[in-house]
Amino acid sequence: MLRKLLTDLRMYGALEAMETICSIKKKEEFALAILQAEFTHRQQKAQTLRMKKAKFPIDKEWSDIDPSLNPGINFKDVQALGNGEFVRNKENVCLMGQQGTGKSHSLIALSRQLCRAGFTVQFYTACGLVNLLEEAKEQNKLNKVMQAILKPSLLLIDELGFVPFSESGACLLFDVFARRYEQGSIAVSTNLSFDKWVQVFGSVELTAALVDRFTHRAHIYIYEGESIRLRTAKQRKRGK
User: Fold this and answer.
1) Which residue has better confidence, 191 or 227?
2) Same structural domain for residues 86 and 178?
3) What is residue 70's three-state secondary structure?
């Protein structure tokens, strides 16, 4: 009867735990154990779903980074953001610096931390996000797509600065920053300092307004050092 009831209630975590906790004789302890098993099961299932919905391009963790390779980068402080306080306060994060130093890796590792902590995250490359917005505008679906972009606790925009945007694309991305201002957090990785963002957005006025909003409540970390990808390539070449 109990197994059928748990199945009907879709309490699969409790159902799986039945064999290990059925020997508990005290009713209160049994009830606590079975509910704890169900709670843990649902937490794990929700975490898996958040990871899937985030659409990370690759699985990266902090354990995959060797801080000694670039001791000038403060990886520990970035990792500490995983407590989620900046997301609760609707603040932003910017990882700025040279290519190959671990900016994208750090963004993904941090975001996976936050997914485990219960926050919703959505990953985009800057180019991919602008393309999505422009296509949505052409198909008269911009409002629907914009609502989806505004929904997650943290919006990730990776590789800002590699490709300049069209005037329309720049305006659409500005709209994303403006709408999420003090409403939801944005985390950006970029190879350009703020004064060079005009190279991407085109308009001096639009760029100034965007940077002003983004940096108002932002945690900014500079990534300076040797490209790990380049170092690995050199070591591979020596090995041959």
Assistant:
1) 191
2) yes
3) coil
Query: Is the domain of 66 the same as that of 140?
Result: yes
Can you tell me the distance from the alpha carbon of 3 to that of 11, in angstroms, rounded to the nearest whole number?
A: 10
Place of tokens 């690759």: 58
**Type of residue found at 163:** V
The tens digit of pLDDT for each residue in 119-136 reads: 999 999 999 999 999 999
Chain centroid, CA 19 distance in Å: 38
pTM of the model: 0.83
Number of neighbouring beta carbons within 10 Å of residue 152: 21
Type of residue at 218: A
β-sheet bridge partners, residue 158: 125
- Structural domains of the chain, count: 2
Directed axis angle between helix 142-150 and helix 167-180, to 10°? 40
pLDDT band (50, 70, 90) for residue 196: very high
